[in-house]
Write a structure and sequence with these properties.
Structural class: alpha/beta
Number of helices: 15
Largest sheet: 6 strands, parallel
Number of strands: 14
Helix content: 40-55%
Radius of gyration: 21 Å
Order of helices and strands: EHEEEHEHEHHEHEEHEHEHEHEHEHHHH
Shape: globular
CATH topology of the largest domain: Rossmann fold
CATH architecture of the largest domain: 3-Layer(aba) Sandwich
Number of domains: 2
Strand order of the largest sheet: 2-1-5-6-7-8
Length: about 350
């Protein structure tokens, strides 16, 4: 099957959306499917306001349509609600093609935290975008339920996975660290609430891995923390293993891949009891959820690392890809043929 994914988020960005799409493409191709991605790469682009790491493609409907027809997909999945996503949605609707979308980020909450736009306004826009799809794929049952309660008509589960070979509990831990070590990994931005972690009265050391618009301000305010920048691959896995607790202070994430990666390395998670952590960690023994984040951090220290790893083993990219495949909608071949004729000028 030929699967086309349209996404405004792609390399060189480092975030959960990009990682999810990269791992999903890998699994789909391992299962024998052909995939193609339309992303900002190859288009002229501009930085996204308030989030300059994201490039917004500056292109025409005609060019996006040409790229779609060159691939002639059997299924169309629109991953993001950016310029490319809206163009692909418009093309699909005009042709009568079924398609799926994904809800990767709690964008209304992000926008409210950054510039104060009321949640109702942004959710109304997103309902319009996603309700044109057959299904809107969301990463946890709590997010699926939340979307349904907000009037999203086709919310359906598409979970996430973790590379259990890369992220593992074997290997040396940093002997020079002043124990215990509490670690944050992720984007350093206002909606991630990194300051909630850094303000906690905790023993040992606090480590922060990541970049973002809040880093300079927070690093100046909390110089006693270790600021490590962006790490990936084996270096990131080693960092997770070195920590005693991975702290996840965000209340706006839909999943939180870093939580599963940390647990795969045997490191328990401390987080608030909100969507994302509720389904990823819950009462599984992989971490502690508590409205008092300090209490969650201290209680997580007592969790056995072997049991934490076992929780992560329940998340695989293969199973997640199967969920996506089950939701994809086949484009009627007659409609694909009509599009190919139009492209050739026949």
């Amino acid at each position: 099957m030929k699967i086309l994914i349209v996404s405004d988020a792609w390399e060189p960005q480092v975030n959960g959306v990009v990682r999810t799409l990269k791992m999903t493409r890998r699994e789909l191709e391992l299962k024998g499917h052909q995939t193609e991605l339309i992303s900002p790469l190859g288009f002229r682009s501009i930085p996204c306001p308030t989030y300059p790491e994201i490039s917004l493609a500056m292109t025409s409907r005609r060019e996006v349509e040409r790229r779609i027809d060159e691939f002639a997909p059997d299924c169309l999945h629109i991953a993001t609600e950016g310029p490319l996503g809206w163009l692909a949605r418009s093309i699909a609707l005009r042709r009568g093609w079924p398609f799926t979308t994904a809800y990767h980020s709690r964008f209304p909450e992000y926008v409210k935290a950054r510039i104060g736009v009321p949640l109702a306004w942004t959710y109304a826009l997103l309902r319009r975008f996603h309700n044109a799809a057959t299904y809107t794929l969301a990463p946890t049952p709590a997010i699926v339920a939340d979307l349904a309660a907000r009037g999203f008509s086709g919310a359906r589960l598409w979970s996430r996975g973790v590379d259990l070979q890369l992220f593992n509990a074997s290997g040396a831990r940093d002997a020079a660290a002043k124990r215990p070590v509490f670690l944050y990994v992720g984007r350093i931005a206002v909606e991630k609430q990194v300051d909630q972690f850094l303000r906690l009265d905790l023993p040992g050391e606090k480590w922060v891995a990541g970049e973002g618009p809040e880093r300079a301000r927070l690093q100046a305010r909390f110089p006693q923390a270790r600021w490590l920048g962006v790490l990936d691959g084996a270096a990131l896995a080693q960092l997770y293993r070195a920590a005693d607790v991975m702290v996840f202070p965000s209340v706006t994430d839909t999943f939180g891949l870093v939580m599963v990666e940390a647990m795969a390395c045997g490191t328990p998670v401390a987080a608030f009891p909100v969507p994302g952590p509720i389904d990823v960690v819950g009462d599984s023994g992989g971490g502690v959820l508590h409205a008092d984040l300090r209490q969650a951090c201290l209680r997580a220290l007592a969790l056995p690392r072997g049991a934490v790893r076992q929780r992560a083993e329940q998340f695989t990219w293969s199973a997640a890809a199967d969920q996506m495949l089950a939701a994809l909608q086949t484009i009627p071949r007659s409609q694909c043929g009509q599009a190919a004729v139009a492209l050739s000028g026949g």
